[in-house]
């Protein structure tokens, strides 16, 4: 039987026959809904025949017929009423199941998030792109779209979004640009590691969004619900529609705290913290200062994550404090890494290993955090080493710094812009979408195989701006991205290993080796991180001043 499960209480499937009803009942269903009008097809049993067979099998049956391609608002309301009244689980059917999936989507639109509806129907094999505006509008047909149109629409007001808006304005001041983001506050996230190490105050990493939006850029303070790239449209919460000539997608990624059982309930207490949240980074420093003895866990989930070095930066700065205060001998440091290497670019590993040994930290590879019991101070890891059966191990802790699992935002993963893994699908050189020529992406949300860091976005913004302007002028892409990313690994207070690399792990140092050898811990790199990069971020990168970030030109050949 072709059952296509949407939720635990609801499945859909193509046309059934009376002979199928015993198997449907045996599968645990208690009700059926027919959404296909009688007489639509020559080989189609009438509903009365289905109803009698259902009754005989102990099932309730309901008839909510809908003409193919004409699902009305009243039909969705009738379907919703049937769902509320019938015993569950329910199986709905039509010729292919599409009408049934559509009716469910519209009926649930008032109580479920659009991304959840689109994800559930997509997983069942049904594309709801044709009714996405109605889903966003609470299941009802919009009566007034109220379209606004811009030359360029940018989704996301983080480091990537504001930087690319500024870079576009500096190249073509007359462009009408809209930036879509519901947030009031913009954060300098690379600074949170330093907050967790007691070096920065959290307040220095936050500014109002309004103070950073480039002059002449329209800020639409709203979340995106869905995309219609075939119509050059972005659908906002509340079903407002924004049209564009060109679209740039850079909303960052989603920190999936809920993927680890028990984690949400214990964050910020019971010794569980994370530098990946503005409000928790100060708690990290409190825990580090307060720990006199015991076990400290530092976790890293499977890739991809933003700033792959951040989980171990927390370890190094914590270890350095315990070393300087004479407590290190009483503290058991454990690094629990879901991956199989300390760092993905081998040239930087020897310097890092010296600090792993200095802080007497144990490296536990292929350990992925799956469960936390905060009050009991126990963490459970799935251990999946190559060529061995996965096992679970539970470890006691006194302090735990967690790096959460990460994925693309929900509204991206269910959109036509996403690849099979949920990331925006781009050409890794031009950062142009592989399917939609007037769409570009940068920052953490796109699928180029580079490190997800602010330094990467700093390089990508001018490249996207250059290529968008070239496209507006009727030309081909003019700039190519080499995968540059930077990860300043804070190995102790006052020294950093400055990892700079591109696609394939190629080393891409910004400075000559005699001035700053990135493969070794240096004071110069620390000064860069502590004193130079924050003002470069606020006053240059976000303002369209492309210091040391001029895009490489595409060469013909």
UniProtKB/TrEMBL annotation:
Entry's Gene Ontology BP terms: sulfide oxidation, using sulfide:quinone oxidoreductase
InterPro entries (UniProt xref): BLH_phosphatase-like, FAD/NAD-bd_sf, FAD/NAD-binding_dom, Prot-tyrosine_phosphatase-like, Rhodanese-like_dom, Sulphide_quinone_reductase
PROSITE patterns associated with the record: RHODANESE_3
Superkingdom as given in the UniProt entry: Bacteria
A Pfam cross-reference name: Pyr_redox_2
Cofactor names: FAD
Keywords tagged on the record: FAD, Flavoprotein, Oxidoreductase, Quinone, Transit peptide
Gene Ontology terms for molecular function: FAD binding; hydrolase activity; quinone binding; sulfide:quinone oxidoreductase activity
Residues in Rhodanese domain copies: 75-130
Keyword presence, Flavoprotein: yes
Protein name: TIGR01244 family phosphatase
Source species taxonomy: Bacteria, Pseudomonadati, Pseudomonadota, Alphaproteobacteria, Rhodobacterales
